[in-house]
Amino acid sequence: MTSKPVYRILTNDEWRIARKKGFISANQADRKDGFIHLSSQETFLETAGRYYNPKDHPWVVELAPEKLMGEIRWELVGARKDIFPHFYGVEIPLMAVRAVARLCWGASGVCVQSWSSAQ
Fold first, then answer.
1. From CA 94, how far away is CA 22, in angstroms rounded?
2. What's this model's pTM, rounded to 2 decimal places?
3. The predicted structure's pLDDT at residue 1
4. What phi, psi does 64 have (nearest 5°)?
5. What is the pLDDT of residues 31-45, one digit of tens each?
6. Quick check: 77 and 32 in contact, CB under 8 A?
7. What is the Cα Rg of the chain in Å?
8. What SS3 string covers the chain?
9. What phi and psi values does residue 75 have, to the nearest 5 degrees?
10. Contact assessment for residue 94 and residue 19, using Cβ atoms and an 8 Å cutoff
11. CB-based contacts of 112: which residues, under 8 Å, 6+ apart?
12. Predicted local distance difference test score (pLDDT) of residue 2
């Protein structure tokens, strides 16, 4: 299994609920597709800009793949012409979160405010 981090983008409400429950749940799009959508370090900012609204005050979490109970498959997403990590598991435990950051929108697009350790 790879130790290269993968990333999950969450709305502020999803992150709040995850901290309360102790795990990140699949959202509606994940349930529809049968896996939890993740991104690579190279793609999470583009993903945020494409699918998230600044009004949702999204967060990005960096995940340790070795702490996930399920399989990560790197699969081609034709619409994006790139390979993305897809997590085939029930939920993401917060113990898998290495770091977290608030996303922001500026003149040059989506940016990361600052990373904080999850510990």
1. 6
2. 0.91
3. 47
4. -90, 110
5. 999 999 999 999 999
6. no
7. 13
8. CCCCCEEEEECHHHHHHHHHHCEEECCHHHHHHCCEECECCCCHHHHHHHHCCHHHCCEEEEECHHHCCCEEEEEEECCCCEEEEEEECCEEEHHHEEEEEEEEEECCEEEEEEEEECC
9. -125, 145
10. yes
11. 45, 60, 101, 102, 103, 104
12. 56
Dist CA 16 CA 93 (whole Å)? 14
Q: Please identify which residue in the block is written with the tokens 């993401």.
A: 92
The CATH number assigned to the domain with range 6-107 reads 3.20.170.20
3-state SS, one letter per residue, for 29-41 = HHHHHCCEECECC
Q: Where are the domains of the chain?
A: 6-107
Which residues, 6 or more positions from 81, have their beta carbon under 8 angstroms from its beta carbon?
none
